[in-house]
Design a protein that fits this description.
The chain is mainly α. The chain has one domain.
Length: 217
């Protein structure tokens, strides 16, 4: 846990070169990334308006890491409650964990959010603290309307898996109904968009707004 706070401080350190502050943000994402590292980074570039040229707005890195920090604090509080609950259950002889597991313990290949790993730009439009609050509420038994991830209430989109169909949230590609085969496979089509382009913020303009020509450039 110290690593996140150490690198958060480095993101804030105006005495460091911008590329090192940017790398510190990435290290923070290796500690906590609600949408997965790549999708969370893509989200932060949009929500914090991180420009393609970091020199154009160095404060964008601070905005990004503070949004991440706020979400992490919400997660830590709920994770500590869950850990205390599990200790009490084990003392009472109930060693089997509840199913489904808490959202932060899901493996990406078994979770309904796996599209965000294949297509990092398909994440929810929610700010990270809002997403964490929503997931915590669902874990606590809340019956929230719409997509469990983002709340979108439009009809789902059907995508072919090659031998069946999956139903995805129209806004964030959360798997609402998995392929009947039960096997692990992509739920969104291949795209020419790669991690290198996202990391270099090819989807952003120098003024911190989305690049209107992306991904054609």
């Amino acid at each position: 846990m110290t690593s996140f706070l150490t690198h958060r401080a480095r993101v804030h350190d105006v005495g460091l070169p911008l590329h090192r502050r940017h790398s510190a943000l990435r290290t923070c994402l290796t500690c906590f990334a609600p949408y997965g590292l790549r999708a969370t980074y893509h989200h932060l570039t949009l929500s914090a308006a991180i420009p393609r040229r970091l020199e154009a707005d160095p404060d964008a890195l601070v905005r990004a890491v503070e949004e991440l920090h706020e979400a992490r604090m919400l997660w830590l509080a709920r994770a500590e409650e869950y850990a205390a609950q599990r200790r009490a259950e084990k003392r009472a002889g109930r060693r089997a964990a509840a199913n489904p597991r808490p959202w932060w313990l899901r493996s990406w290949w078994e979770g309904p959010n796996r599209a965000w790993y294949d297509a990092p730009f398909r994440h929810p439009p929610l700010r990270l603290p809002e997403y964490v609050r929503r997931q915590n509420a669902i874990l606590d038994g809340a019956d929230l309307p719409g997509c469990p991830a983002c709340g979108d209430e439009r009809p789902p989109v059907s995508n072919s898996s090659g031998h069946g169909w999956v139903e995805l949230c129209r806004a964030c590609a959360w798997v609402l109904a998995p392929c009947p085969c039960g096997q692990r496979h992509r739920v969104v089509p291949d795209t020419p968009i790669n991690w290198t382009g996202i990391w270099r913020r090819a989807h952003m303009s120098d003024d911190g707004t989305p690049n209107p020509h992306w991904p054609a450039v």
